[in-house]
Design brief:
extended; mainly alpha
């Protein structure tokens, strides 16, 4: 896995610096506006959930006979199996999509534990679901969340190291969004491999994954996979 700044990319950076702001700056500004629109929409949707939750609290029956029960859980477990297989594939071939795949797997296992424990509580199989939830599903979800955090932090560290901006990211919650207005340093982003934001045409054929392991020193054009 490579995260390389090439000599050609450096020359491109110096040319961009002389030419001044380019169309990339407008793109970053538009992205910042889109972030504000998305934030507003999410707040509106979240607010709509409040009366819906109150309504459910008043009108949902304490007991409900669900139909297609085998199909529900066989389908859900098949989804978990598919995500696990995809995570294995992405890890084996070192694909960038490994991080979001780990996040999806964590959510699936947390939901599995929640529904197992809540729906079986008060029944004779409650201890089995407690054992599987607390002993397998929740620990797996925590492991996937830890792996997701590690992958994203390593990617951000590699990105900021390539920019030489001195920024150290240790907390995902406070980490600034790379595609936000104010990043604006498209001249340096153009010279990075593995990020995929403004990579030049000559860089697109190279392997691009900064997530897992290797960083290559500047000036080195190749590395062992």
């Amino acid at each position: 896995m490579l995260f390389v700044r090439t000599a050609g990319a450096k020359r491109s950076s110096s040319r961009s610096a002389r030419d001044g702001p380019g169309p990339g700056h407008e793109w970053f500004a538009r992205t910042g506006q889109a972030n504000q629109v998305i934030a507003a929409l999410m707040l509106i949707i979240a607010a709509c959930f409040i009366p819906w939750i109150v309504l459910l609290g008043f009108y949902l029956p304490p007991h409900y006979e669900a139909g297609h029960w085998p199909l529900l859980w066989i389908g859900y477990d098949t989804a978990e199996l598919s995500v696990l297989a995809f995570v294995a594939w992405a890890s084996w071939y070192r694909r960038e999509i490994l991080a979001p795949a780990c996040l999806v797997a964590a959510v699936l296992f947390l939901c599995d534990a929640w529904f197992d424990i809540v729906t079986s509580w008060g029944h004779r199989d409650q201890w089995i679901t407690l054992a599987t939830g607390l002993g397998a599903e929740i620990p797996l979800a925590i492991a996937f969340l830890w792996l997701y955090r590690r992958l994203v932090l390593k990617a951000l560290a590699a990105f900021h190291d390539s920019l030489r901006d001195g920024m150290v990211i240790s907390n995902l919650v406070s980490a600034p969004l790379i595609l936000s207005e104010g990043e604006g340093r498209t001249d340096e982003v153009k010279g990075t491999k593995g990020v995929g934001l403004h990579a030049s045409e000559t860089d697109r054929s190279a392997p691009t994954s900064p997530l897992l392991e290797t960083e290559v020193d500047e000036g080195s054009g190749s590395s062992d996979p």
